[in-house]
Write a structure and sequence with these properties.
It comes from Comamonas koreensis. This is Tail protein X. The protein is α+β, with helices and mostly antiparallel strands. 32% of the residues lie in helices and 9% in strands. The chain has a two-stranded antiparallel ribbon with strand order 1-2. The mean pLDDT is 91.
Length: 66
């Protein structure tokens, strides 16, 4: 999904607003947008940012009785 940044947007707020959390999504978005890391703290208004939803980490369950 590609979105345009609002005035004074920062990357983590942009990701959280559109994807609902930042867990892994910020890193995946940075990897998909070369050069975005240089402006991540003050993204220019109207700049297109390709948001990437990271895969959910697999969590092993641990049972106390095992």
């Amino acid at each position: 999904m590609t979105v345009r940044a609002l005035q004074s947007d920062v990357l983590d707020a942009l990701v959280n607003r559109h994807l609902g959390s930042t867990a892994g999504h910020v890193e995946a978005t940075l990897a998909a947008n070369p050069g975005l890391a240089k402006v991540a703290m003050d993204i220019p208004m109207g700049m297109p940012v390709r948001l990437v939803k990271a895969a959910q980490p697999v969590q092993d369950r641990i049972n106390l009785w095992d």
